[in-house]
Design goal:
Length: 250
């Protein structure tokens, strides 16, 4: 474990120096900086250089996209302590949704791209457990997508600032009732690399998790996995860890 953690630290050292040491927290292309809204979000990092966003659902548990932690690599949750020093928190347990399919995009198959991770120790008290929503969005509704990804395609230096953007729902849930699709905003505002696992929210409650963005350059459609249809799995997994999510009252 110590050797694996050392490899992770070495692989992430350049990333931390570029983007994580100077800002309060990742980025949405075309979005607005929203560090005040980052109290329920963290970064999920992997030793292969991957960067994702995660939603705090319990003091020691994070909900994110399945592809963010499915790879055979070392993973850590990143945040900053009160002095601004980067912390790489160890993950004690991981649960991929049984409907997650790593080859779904290439094979054009359905995938429920969700995962839960449990930390070896609770996050600092300043983190707030996110409110989750089982609501089904309506076409034309405006939702807020947030994350720690890049502010512009290929700009790794912009990773590390939490950003949000309001986008319109163009497809409420699809025939499978597991997805929500968001259209690009003005100037191509959308999710981008590093925003996977971040919240798609109605008001103050997350109703979906960002999972995919159209095109290699971002600026297109953004896709999220709706939480309502997966509530039983989320609750069952957290209950097995002695935890519980905070769901918005219906």
């Amino acid at each position: 474990m110590a050797r694996g953690f050392g490899r992770l630290c070495g692989a992430l050292a350049g990333l931390l120096a570029l983007g994580l040491a100077g800002g309060p927290a990742g980025a949405v292309v075309g979005g607005r900086a929203a560090p005040e809204a980052a109290a329920s979000s963290v970064m999920v990092l992997s030793s292969n250089g991957g960067v994702c966003t995660g939603i705090v659902v319990a003091p020691d548990a994070v909900l994110t996209a399945g592809h963010c932690v499915a790879a055979r690599a070392e993973h850590r949750v990143h945040y900053k302590d009160e002095a601004g020093t980067p912390v790489l928190a160890e993950i004690a347990a991981r649960a991929l949704h049984p409907g997650y399919d790593a080859g779904a995009v290439a094979g054009r198959r359905r995938s429920i791209d969700l995962a839960l991770v449990r930390l070896a120790a609770p996050l600092p008290a300043r983190f707030v457990t996110a409110s989750l929503s089982a609501a089904m969005p309506r076409a034309g509704e405006r939702l807020t997508l947030s994350g720690y990804g890049v502010a512009a395609p290929g700009d790794a230096r912009s990773t590390g600032t939490y950003r949000s953007v309001d986008l319109g729902v163009i497809e409420p849930h699809g025939p499978s009732r597991i997805l929500v699709w968001l259209g690009a905003g003005p100037g191509g505002a959308s999710a981008c690399h590093g925003d996977s696992g971040g919240p798609i929210a109605a008001g103050t409650s997350a109703l979906a998790v960002s999972a995919w963005v159209a095109g290699k350059a971002c600026g297109g459609l953004s896709q999220g996995i709706l939480l309502g249809p997966q509530r039983a799995w989320i609750d069952r997994t957290l209950s097995g860890w002695g935890l519980a999510a905070r769901w918005q009252a219906d």
